[in-house]
Amino acid sequence: MSCTLFIDADDTLWENFAYFEAARERFLAWMEQGGYARNEVDVVLNRIDSERTHEIGFGSMGYREAMRRTMLFFYEKTGREKTARDTVLLDEIQRSVHLHPVELYPGVAETLAYLREKYPLFLVTKGVEDEQSGKVERANVAGYFKDVFVIPDKTPAQYRELMSILAISPCDAWMIGNSPRSDINPPAEIGMGTVLVKKERAWDFEEVPLKHNGRFHEITDFRQLKEIF
Ligand SMILES: [Mg+2]
Fold first, then answer.
1. Domains of the chain and CATH, by start
2. Is 70 exceeded by the pLDDT of residue 185?
3. How many Å apart are CA 185 and CA 5, to the nearest integer?
4. How many angstroms is it from 26 CA to the middle of ligand 1?
């Protein structure tokens, strides 16, 4: 088949979610030590985190900001001042996410090598330019792709723009990724084919009902792409 493949990065090529999870754990433990109920803090953090993504984007700085606002929310309620130690903790957590090790999932490199021989590949990742580019560099995968696109959010309009920049018809394009919200529903809406690489654990934020258009596959291992393409 004649087509172009667009491939997501975080949690499709390499683990990312686990580092945010570890960051969240560390923050909750800190707040718990300060006397705040862990589950209450967790609820507020999740709420603020999904609100702020529209405002300040995805990535470690955005997550730091969500943690900071959550902290202030509880501190204000109890008349407590934020201290220098709180700031140090937030900075440390942010850095641990920003610079996390990037290790490809098993079989990703060989599968990309196989796909590249047959189709033009483009990496499409959502987030902050320098953070995402840093991960692409550490993963050493840029060579498999004709180009890497870091976009602020994965909306139908953003996908449409990509198609028009590259002069590709959505009928000849597939998007491959782990997130129904970002990698399946919006590209399916504009007529692209989609492949969901299903992960056991995911952001609550990314968990929305799947809406594909019939040109759709679901796999659990990146290597299965070789059976489809
Ligand atoms: Mg992803």
1. 4-14+102-228 (3.40.50.1000), 17-98 (1.10.150)
2. yes
3. 16
4. 23
